[in-house]
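Record type: monomer structure entry
Structure origin: computed from sequence
Chain ID: A
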Amino acid sequence: DLRRYCRWCLFIQAGAVLAYALARPDLIAWWMVFGLTLRNAAIFAPTVAILLWPVATSAAAVISMVTGVAAGFWWNALTDFSPTVFYGGVNPMYLGTAVSVLLLVFISLCENRTISIKLNSAGGAWGWLGVVAAAAFAILAVTAAPFLKTFGILGLDLLLASLGVFMAAIAWVHEGPPRAGNERLQIPRQDGG
C-alpha cells in the first residue's frame, strides 16, 4: 500500500532528523538548508506533475529529482556548505527546485512524440499567464539582480520564472495517443485497478 509506505518513510525521516539534531546541534542550520533543498527539489515538480500534468513521464520525474537535488547540493558546496551565505545570493533550495521543474518539463516534452499543444484549451489563459510571469520574472532577474540579491530574493525570482514555464506547459501541452514504452506518472488506485 503506497500510503502506508509514505507514512513509514515520513516517520523514518522525522526520526533521522531528530537523531541528527540531537547528535549535532551545531549543524542544525545546515541540515535545514539541505533538508529544504532536498524536499523541494525532489518532491515539488513530480508531485504537481502527478496531480495536474499527465504528459510528465517517470523518467523525467526521476532525472529531475536527482538533478535538482544535486544542483542544490552543489550550489551549497560552492560556499563550503554555509547555512547562511549562499553563492550569488541564491538559496540552494530555490536553485534546486527551479532546475527540477525545468528539467521535468524539458525531458517530458522530449520523450513524448504524441503531444498536442492547445493554446485555446479550457485552461489556455493560465498558459498565457505562465508565459507572462516567466518572462517578467526572467527580465526582473536580469535587470535587477543586484537589488534582488540585497534582499536575498534573486533565487525566488528565478524559481518563479521556472514555475511560469511549468504553468504554461501544464495548461497548453496535452497527451496524444499513448506510445509504446512511454510510461506515464500514475497514482495507483486503492482497489488494485
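Annotation 1: The two ends are 13 Å apart (CA to CA).
Annotation 2: The helical segments are 2-23, 28-52, 58-77, 92-111, 124-143, 145-150, 154-172.
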